[in-house]
Amino acid sequence: MYKRNTQFRRRAIVDRLMSQGEVTVDALTKEFSTSEVTIRKDLTELERSGLLVRKYGGAMLLPQDAPELEEEVSFRKISIAKAASQLIRDHNRIIIDSGSTTSALIPELNHKRGLVVMTNALHVSASLLELENEPTVLMTGGTWDNQSHSFQGQMAEQMLRAYNFDQAFLGAAGLDLDKGTTTFNELTQLSKVMAEVAREVIVLAESEKLQRKIPNLELPWSQISVLVTDDQIPAAARQQIEQKGVQVICAKTE
Length: 254
Fold this sequence. Notes:
By secondary structure, the chain is α/β, with parallel strands linked by helices.
């Protein structure tokens, strides 16, 4: 009965979208006499199926004229996230850092069981709570940083150090072939703590970030286990990173 009700409700939501162009969580909650959490899960699943796009407070039909470049960038991020998700096993304890590429990992977690996930980003925790497999979600807390849109500081570091993790999934503003990951944000201590408390550190970054000259070193290659990037990375660059002892996984983008 539960599955039938869910399928019926999701078909009805798609029907509303086709006729109205957009829907709101509030209106759907009232129409189907259910909770906002349930409706958000419905919208998340329908988005994963390519039937809609989420927006604040609801959803809308997929735009037909999205810029081609934006689609290409999003596709690369999703491809990288899909490849990274293959490294996660059921019941793993993982960290997901803030960032658009690491955020793309979240929909790929829906078929993993028994996950414990800690994050320092509000949007990541909100998306995790909408997954149907209901992972255990932990927040670092701390001081909000407007530049990174995440919590930072000593309280966040203490929270991380209270646990041990199997994997940490981190993003990067830039990649330096000699040094490691780089960032514009001088607040790099939390990333260092994430790396310290995880058995395996996995960086998700598009190959184009090799071209960015960014001043602040975030993590040296010696602290990174795996780099998941796209298949546009030059062979020489991949070889140089692998010589640092880092496994390089290249997601297919063509």
